[in-house]
């Protein structure tokens, strides 16, 4: 497993949080406000929160939900495909779902060749590209 993928999953599992970063009384994660993560480390740290920051772009919030195994929440954010980045994440999500015909349509809408490599590598590459571009 790639280091980023392993890190994205560290501390989070389906159905809840695996460790730390919680306010014991409320059972809720508390993180400082941030407009967009500066790097992958900030992105990974944000995964213990209840939701991604609302001021992140939809494509980045969708990757956040995907990293937590929340496919439907991720899909809902990019379902309309309003930007090339949203179309690109939408394609990735349909490929993760196993719907290659639908994924191919969204790759076409994003104006990029269809990716057929490992899914986690595709997600990591998307995250790095978005962060490098300022999200």
From TrEMBL:
<protein>
    <submittedName>
        <fullName>Uncharacterized protein</fullName>
    </submittedName>
</protein>
